[in-house]
Amino acid sequence: MFRRTFMATVIGASMAIAGATSVLADGHGKKMDIVDTAVDAGSFTTLVAAVQAAGLVDTLKGEGPFTVFAPTDAAFAALPEGTVENLLKPENKDQLVSILTYHVVPAKVMAGDIDGKKAKVLTVEGERLDVNARNGVKVNDAKVTAADIAASNGVIHVIDKVLIPGS
């Protein structure tokens, strides 16, 4: 249940780190992918750590395109005490990958693409997310707090909760 959600979460966090900007390069002209964007944002340290622990860095630095629904550090902090620490243990890697990949859609979906609509979107984890953009934007029960953070290989939408597959 948690294996693909973790990857999605990691991807999401990476996107959120990018900040609400469409700039795809750092100050030196280097293109910034989802992971670089998340690291640069500074509010996705837990997500980035999870992505690293899950072995998903190379995947999220790949060609894409990806849409990541990225939980902030505050979203991870809201999980029950000990949850993050437990997920980061090597023996729980499959569960972590499941959770992170549940936050990732294997396509680039911008806010304007879904404005005023409801949809079920397939995640890398294999389950579908309920996206409702009729009154603000919600993904399952998480609220999108910042949208359309562009990266060279996709887009990040910041969310206020960690998504758990099957819940």
Reconstruct the topology from this structure.
Layout: H1 5-17, H2 34-41, H3 45-54, H4 57-60, E1 66-71, H5 73-77, H6 83-87, H7 93-101, E2 104-105, H8 111-114, E3 118-122, E4 128-132, E5 138-139, E6 142-151, E7 154-159
Parallel strand pairs: 1-7
Antiparallel strand pairs: 1-2, 3-4, 4-5, 5-6, 6-7
Number of helices: 8
Number of strands: 7
Radius of gyration: 14 Å
Helix content estimate: 25-40%
Q: What's the story with the biggest beta sheet?
A: 7 strands, mixed
Task: Write a structural description.
Helix content is 35%, strand content 22%. It has 167 residues and is α+β, with helices and mostly antiparallel strands. It has a seven-stranded mixed sheet with strand order 2-1-7-6-5-4-3. A hairpin with a 2-residue loop joins strand 5 and strand 6 (142-151). Helix 1 crosses helix 2 and helix 3 (45-54) crosses helix 7. It starts with a helix and ends in an 8-residue tail after the last strand.
Key structural traits:
35% helix, disordered N terminus, globular, alpha+beta, seven-stranded mixed beta sheet, 167 residues
What's a quick, concise take on this entry?
With 167 residues, this protein is an alpha+beta fold. The protein has helices at 5-17, 34-41, 45-54, 57-60, 73-77, 83-87, 93-101, 111-114; strands spanning 66-71, 104-105, 118-122, 128-132, 138-139, 142-151, 154-159.
